[in-house]
């Protein structure tokens, strides 16, 4: 897909994987809408890359509709990358009692419902695009996690939300194929995002030894590079791609 001259939306674009993806898309010539619940972070990234910031919850219909409308006014909306997510840890049966149900629902709402919300609104707009030379009209990239396959103790809500994104990928790709809209999911492993900076250096070092090769934490720009690779290769569709250095998470 030709990205230059098209518009793109990146949810969770104010930091981490989303910010790196927004920057990669902008460097490739896209007009990028940065959607993030943190207005100041969204604005900072948008200013840096020459994009447009939209503040809002990815699971909110109004905010997502505004992002899609804004992007479509800039240029045909051809790329959407859903990076927004949260990962609170809690045990199903912990010392303080059962897993808080509201917390479980919140994780599902942000990670899974939010991804679907962006997908459905963006896909509806993409189906009206003029097809490119190869018949392609759009690309939707979702973000899962290796926790979808190897969720650790304390990750019940997070793993369930990311497993739902993996399960969503193929039926969405099958449905949207007739419009020339692809759906691909990336399942990253251990990436050095701002969340990692809250850990001690010793904890980060221990985590960096878990991937087999390269034996280090992934870099957000490597996620952004994969987004561009997926855009460039039209045969990538209906699949979840692990980006993890052959990491397989242990139970805890």
Automatic annotation (TrEMBL):
Transmembrane segments: none annotated. Signal peptide: none annotated. InterPro entries: KR_dom, NAD(P)-bd_dom_sf, Sc_DH/Rdtase_CS, SDR_fam. Residues 6-193 form the Ketoreductase domain. Keywords: Oxidoreductase. It holds the Pfam family adh_short. One of its GO terms (molecular function) is oxidoreductase activity. It comes from the Bacteria. Belongs to the short-chain dehydrogenases/reductases (SDR) family. PANTHER family: 17-BETA-HYDROXYSTEROID DEHYDROGENASE 14-RELATED, SHORT-CHAIN DEHYDROGENASE/REDUCTASE. This is NAD(P)-dependent dehydrogenase (Short-subunit alcohol dehydrogenase family). It comes from Roseococcus suduntuyensis.
């Amino acid at each position: 897909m030709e990205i230059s001259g098209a518009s793109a939306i990146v949810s969770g674009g104010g930091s981490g994987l989303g910010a790196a993806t927004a920057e990669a898309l902008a460097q490739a010539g896209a007009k990028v809408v940065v959607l993030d619940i943190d207005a100041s972070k969204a604005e900072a990234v948008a200013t840096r890359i020459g994009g447009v910031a939209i503040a809002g919850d990815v699971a909110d219909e109004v905010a997502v509709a505004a992002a899609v409308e804004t992007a479509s006014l800039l240029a045909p909306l051809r790329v959407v990358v859903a990076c927004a997510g949260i990962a609170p840890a809690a045990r199903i049966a912990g010392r303080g009692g059962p897993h808080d149900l509201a917390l479980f629902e919140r994780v599902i709402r942000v990670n899974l419902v939010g991804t679907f919300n962006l997908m459905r609104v963006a896909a509806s707009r993409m189906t009206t695009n003029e097809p490119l030379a190869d018949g392609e009209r759009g690309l939707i990239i979702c973000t899962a996690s290796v926790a979808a396959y190897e969720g650790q103790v304390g990750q019940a809500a997070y793993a369930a939300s990311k497993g739902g994104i993996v399960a969503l990928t193929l039926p969405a790709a099958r449905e949207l194929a007739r419009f020339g809209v692809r759906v691909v999911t990336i399942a990253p492993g251990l990436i050095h995002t701002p969340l990692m900076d809250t850990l001690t250096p010793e904890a980060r070092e221990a985590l960096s030894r878990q991937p087999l090769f390269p034996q280090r934490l992934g870099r957000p720009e490597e996620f952004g590079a994969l987004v561009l690779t997926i855009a460039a290769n039209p045969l990538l569709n209906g699949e979840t791609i692990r980006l993890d250095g052959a990491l397989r998470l242990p139970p805890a």
